[in-house]
Amino acid sequence: MSAASSDPRDRLIVALDLPSVGAAESVVARIGDAATFYKIGYELGFAGGLGFARELIADGKKVFIDFKLHDIGNTVARGVASLAALGASFATVHAYPQTMRAAMEGKGASPLRILAVTVLTSYDEADLNEAGYAQGVDATVAARVRQAREIGIDGIVCAPTDAAAVRAALGPKRAIVTPGVRPQGASAGDQKRVATPFEAIRSGADHLVVGRPIVTARDPAAAARAVQVEIASALAAS
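Request: output the structure for the sequence above.
Response:
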């Protein structure tokens, strides 16, 4: 496993998939010190979330900007340079070779870590087939991980069900971040390839992205701590 923190709070990334900065501020306030790492995606990002990201970073939190960049190389490189200047800890790009190379160039010497997205956790074999991919999920993930490793990418985003195979192909030093994590008893929602926090960590994941099971909980802080208990159990069993 990569040199990720041993603190379960740092292993959990709370996805702030919310419609407004006000809603995000409320959730973060209710979570308090039960989380240290937050993800901002399109929904919040396009509603003023980048300004909120600066506030979180200034408050000592870590921020993952999940925009899954994919464009011509120059555009990706400049976008990543802006995220590095923001102070983000993680940023995602789609795992296409030209895009990954541009992102690594754009981050320069900053501590920003570039994560390549292999196959979305909402996709299964039928979805890839519909999109025109001749090979299935496993073969597509394997090919993209191999290319990412050769390019020197900082980490991979993959479904928790792919984590063990990705870890074997990626090696021990680079990060694996898994969305599609659902605590025991939680609904899978629109995710198709899911696992519990314990299963994901045991399979080789470093960081788990959890959104709705925490942000929509009656007590978000308690929900975050419950995920961390599973993470701690998995780390102890490793």
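The two ends are 10 Å apart (CA to CA).
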